[in-house]
Amino acid sequence: MIKEFNTQTELSVRLEALWAVLSKDFITVAPKVLPHIVKDVQVIEGDGGVGTLLIFNFLPDVSPSYQREKITEFDEGSHEIGLEVIEGGYLSQGLSYYKTTFKLSAMEEEKTLVNVKISYDHESDIEEKVKPTKTSQSTLLYLRRLERYLLTGTA
């Protein structure tokens, strides 16, 4: 049964700038903001919209060494993007399903609220190896690094 974990954070950047790095420019930005984890990101298939397949290649000391993801939701109007892991990554750590959905909302001119929904399921009834609270912390760290990148130009 698919479970959900929700969290949110407020970032001190404009919605449009955050949406651009989260939905369109992440192929070049992800390795810059996570240089200790991500070697590169490649588009395997698609144009950046729903159905696009991506591969995140990690550095040699990171295990597993890659994660394939599929964009399952992409709505420019509501600033929502969903990425489902389809191979490697969290699926190599005991999960049978893992999807992260980001929904951005403008709060003030220079602030954006990001709602994060993590949907997940386990391969079996064994104890969870990957805890949604831990993966959400990684996701929030990534968002904070995006914020710093947008504010200072460095990760």
Automatic annotation (TrEMBL):
InterPro entries: Bet_v_I/MLP (IPR000916), Bet_v_I_allergen (IPR024949), Plant_def-hormone_signal (IPR050279), START-like_dom_sf (IPR023393)
Gene Ontology BP terms: abscisic acid-activated signaling pathway; defense response
Location of the Bet v I/Major latex protein domain: 4-151
Entry GO CC: cytoplasm; nucleus
Coiled coil region boundaries: none
A GO term for molecular function: signaling receptor activity
PANTHER family: OS08G0374000 PROTEIN-RELATED, PHYTOHORMONE-BINDING PROTEIN
Family per similarity comment: Belongs to the BetVI family.
Protein name in UniProt: Bet v I/Major latex protein domain-containing protein
